[in-house]
Design a protein that fits this description.
Layout: E1 6-12, E2 17-21, E3 25-30, E4 44-50, E5 53-58, H1 60-64, E6 76-81, E7 91-96, E8 101-105, E9 110-112, E10 122-128, E11 131-136, H2 138-150
Parallel strand pairs: 2-11, 5-7
Antiparallel strand pairs: 1-2, 1-8, 3-6, 4-5, 6-7, 9-10, 10-11
């Protein structure tokens, strides 16, 4: 049986990494001060202008643990392709503490860890090449972000 390889990206957060398929990452850019969204949850940092789009920027760390904070000095924004198929929000951004790292995920270097009681937006946790990482639920995350940033959007376009 042939080994399956998935090109992925480890996005460094505070005390944890996110593991994303490489195909979902549109670009990694320097941090820009976001435009606040009035009345938004603390994890929605605001929106930033990227390639003509108002892109919601989130702190994934604050989403999963409301009591946590993340530094923004010298950070990056990882622009992610939204999976919710909505014309108003084709992208969102996640605050990254430094440059993401490309990895190739195989059965040999991936170990699934506990998946019970995952916080909102987390599909599961793994260890890849010895590094702990969260796998985000990108579909649910897209809906949460769209609702927080723009109000009640249709689920699909």
């Amino acid at each position: 049986m042939q080994d399956v390889e998935i090109r992925s990206v480890l996005v460094p957060l505070t005390e944890l990494d996110l593991l994303l398929p490489n195909a979902t990452v549109a670009e990694v850019v320097n941090y820009a001060e976001p435009e606040p969204v009035p009345g938004a949850a603390g994890w929605l940092l605001g929106t930033v202008l990227w390639q003509g789009w108002q892109v919601p920027l989130i702190s994934f760390v604050r989403l999963v643990d409301q009591n946590r904070t993340e530094a923004v000095k010298n950070t990056r924004m990882c622009i992610i392709k939204s999976l919710i198929n909505n014309e108003r929000m084709p992208y969102f951004a996640i605050l990254a503490q430094s440059h993401p790292r490309l990895v190739t995920v195989t059965e040999d270097n991936l170990v699934e860890t506990s998946t019970e009681g995952n916080p909102i937006g987390v599909a599961g946790y793994v260890t890849v090449d010895g590094r702990e990482a969260a796998i985000p639920d990108l579909d649910r995350l897209g809906h949460l972000i769209a609702h927080a940033a723009f109000g009640a959007l249709p689920l699909t376009s």
